[in-house]
Amino acid sequence: MREMKISLTFQKQAYAVFFAIILSLVRGVSYSNEIGIALETPMAILAFTFCADTYTQEIVSKRSEIWRLCPMKRRIYFIYRRIVIQEIFLLIIAAASYGLFFLLQNPITYGITQNGLESEICRFFVYFAAVAVTLGFWGILSNLIACLFRNMWVGIGGCMVLWLITNSVIGNRIFGAWNLFSYSFRNIEDSRDFSWLYGKVVCICLGIAAMAALPEIIRKRG
Amino acid sequence: MGIKIEDLTVTFRNHVTAVNHADLEIPMGMFGLLGENGAGKTTLMRVLTTVLSPTSGTLTLDGIPYSEKNYEKIRKKIGYLPQEIDLYPSLSVQECLEYMGDLSGIPRQIYRERINYYLEKTNLSEQRRKKMKQLSGGMKRRVGLIQALLNEPKFLIVDEPTTGLDPEERIRIRNLLVDFSEGRTVLFSTHVVEDLAATCNQLAVMKKGKFLYSGNMKELLEQARGHIWICKTKEEGTARELEKKYHVSSKQYAGDGLRMKLISETPPQAECSPCEATLEDAYIYIANKETDL
Fold it and tell me: What is the ipTM of this complex?
């Protein structure tokens, strides 16, 4: 509860909710299978802005000097705990956003037969898994960069640059199925194509590497 | 037992030397660190709390040398209240302290007992449910002091804890520090001379990264004895002349003209009489002795 009050302030919750509402109003979709594409990349922006202050808020408030006196394991555990809490909140927002698209834009679904309903649920779960990886990766990365430079804006800026590179035609050409946004660049007409999973594996591997690097950065940079 | 600093130098990347070949021994009890703004007090404290690494020199705390491998051991012995700190504004006092206790790795039952004890001691028991952002500056400092004491440190380092507080709150903080100095070393940094005069017997005076004086308060006063003068003048011109020539530690309009306290190695060229030195006078004397007195 204490951790929630620290890392999920009212302002952060409010802007995340507004972000989801505005996105579902302005980003047009015609078919239900376009919702995932419409959501993944903007959700990454939300994740890296949301998580950039996970630890840097301690630096800004000068509490980091007290943190330094605490055992390293506890410090890292507390930072990870904050990330997990924020990621769970973002996942809820991501799931709710999917619902909002249905509610506000009423996209065309593939029939209302038993099979049709099943495919919609299945599509949602695939989106949910993909966006969970995306949110996790961008949240961890922005926190890592922010800790490295002791500045949340550098964390956000660094992620923004990477976001612009990977969320572009050039990025798609260069990285292909290994792109961080491979889910958004996949061929939505071909539901049997799962080559986008490579991109998500890259996200998971980089995310794990970032989490492993965090203790050393905190040790060195405080 | 205590802190020992030998030939300590801290130079930043911009080539500014904040601490310059400093030597100091800090024994048990209250120890004051006095110096103007920018003297290097905060830098020294940040080195002592392992926030900063020194450029050169050696430090030991309780006989443990400051080195990367000993940092965890040293940190366990230190409680620190930085100059400016904003403790979790959205948490209540109780939640904030519990969070800090949890972060320090203290077992829950123990930190809860300590929080109750210190809240009682600092007169904050009734504020425990209040949010941090609702507290006054003095109350926030007191909470800061409690968080510094949660792990029962042998060394309590407080950086200008009375800055910006009203007189009553300043006295309260000072008294608390004296209470908490029992059985431990309290390093009390300030540029407010009165605060040290009221709390410390031992002190060090710092200027431009160097220690100008370190030792007993009485000896410091003794050093300044015979160099403090009271002058009375009715003429504005003479007063201005004296101000230009000497360091004036105080001046006030009395019924029969302007009464000025001057600091000078030799008797000033005016109608003066020697007077007893206060800590403030002694500080001004020491701080300016080498440069222009």
Answer: 0.86
How far apart are alpha carbons B44 and B58 in whole angstroms? Answer: 12
Q: Which residue of A has its CA nearest to B92?
A: A2
The three-class DSSP label of residue A29 is coil
B160 shares contact with chain A (CB less than 8 Å): no
Q: Is B190 exposed, middle or buried (0-12, 13-18, 19+ CB in 10 A)?
A: buried
d(CA A122, CA B10): 61
CA dist B129 and B217 (Å) reads 41
Residue A196 three-state SS = coil
Tell me, yes or no, if B85 comes closer than 8 A to chain A by beta carbon: yes
pLDDT digit string (tens) for A177-193?
A: 899 998 888 887 777 77
Sign of CA dihedral B264, B270, B273, B275: negative
Are B101 and B115 spatial neighbours (Cβ–Cβ below 8 Å)?
yes
How far is the alpha carbon of A55 from chain B, nearest alpha carbon, in Å?
A: 13
Res. B85 pLDDT band, cuts 50 70 90: confident
pLDDT in tens, B89-129: 999 999 999 999 999 999 999 999 999 999 988 888 899 99
- For residue B94, what is the nearest residue in chain A, using CA coordinates? A2
Interface test with A, best of B44, B51, B66 (most A CBs within 10 A): B51
DSSP 8-state secondary structure symbol assigned to residue B278: P
**Smallest Cα distance from B86 to chain A, Å:** 5
First to last CA, chain B: 37
pTM above 0.90, yes or no: no
Query: With contacts defined as CB-CB under 8 Å, which chain B residues touch A75?
Result: 103
Name the token pair of A69: 């006196």
CB neighbours of residue B112 within 10 Å: 15
